[in-house]
Amino acid sequence: MLLNEELIKNSEIMNFKIYKLGGLGIVLGLLIFSCGKKSPDSENPTENGFDKSAMLANYADNVIVPAYLGLQQQLSPLEVAINAFLASPTQANQDLAKAAFKLAYQKFERVSSIQFGPGNTYLQNNFLNTLPAEPENDNNAGINAIENNAATGNYNLTLNSTTNQQGFPALDYLLFAPDAIQKLSAAGSEKRKKYVQDVVARMKDITGHIVTDWQGTYRATFVANTKTDVGSPIGSMVERFANEMDKMKGPRIGWPFGKQSGGLIFPEKCEGYYSGISLSLAIENITGLKEMYTGGGNGKGISDYLIALKKEQLNKDVLKQFDLVIADLNAIPNPLSASLNNQKPLVETAYKDIQILLTLIKTDVASATGVRITYQDSDGD
């Protein structure tokens, strides 16, 4: 083994020095010390006096499980409102469904950064929020596939190939597109209505499984693992923070704003485009991400861990940048789809501050906590 070879080599060097010095006790002491040292990946519940297990318990009990319960609970009134709209596709009922949809979507934004553990097992973000739902050239993708599913009733929402045909983006289109009321009122719309109901049922099913797992055995597994290596709770959280910021920079703001298309703006790429709630979703997402970073405010979080690691200034910089991004997004007039053209300076300011926050988390926070970022961002820039 490499460790044994290294010890042998060190021992030979030390023996040579001892022969020169005439002190056998020195090498024995050094070898004992070397063998007793823990590797960087060893379990270490307390670091610099900071209790990482207590931090993880706070995350599980006071941030993560409550966030999932919030989503689960809000999906029920959403289902009721949608069923009322489907039964009577009027403007009034659509407005009520839209209000419930907004609340549920905002609850989802609070769990978007928790796709690890059970969230990753059930691919929550893939199935609940692959965005945007937009026309594609490929008849098996985007709105074309959604329309085909709604017309034929032939679909299997458990397949990974159907992630862009379900979840919040699909409901956003099916319920709130300009011709939604017309299509749901048309003769022969039963399959379309059934498809909507199946999408909602699938969302409830996935969320229910995740809640059950967190409230079951996974909570203890999460709290007990205080490592920071790939796949560990701390490693996964920091990586998810970075991943969410990449999404904010890309799909939520950058892609619609033309950052991948030479300045050509695509309003329809906005998250929550048809319901017109893109900005509120972005604000909810970044606010929830800050809450995850701080541990919810009432308990220890990654921010406190950085302070224990003597990275006080980095923590201050990150918190300041969170507040800047939130203020930037609040300054953009609704809807975002219109402001992409009409308020370009405000959107550009938000985009630049998002880039700075992304760098702080993906590079500086990850380095300070010893976390290795393994995912590949989808921007390519």
From TrEMBL:
Its main location: other. Pfam families: Peptidase_M75. Gene3D superfamilies: M75 peptidase, HXXE motif. CDD domains: Imelysin-like_IPPA (cd14659). InterPro entries: Imelysin-like, Imelysin-like_IPPA, Imelysin_sf. This is Imelysin family protein. Residues 64-352 form the Imelysin-like domain. It is found in: Cell envelope. Keywords: Signal.
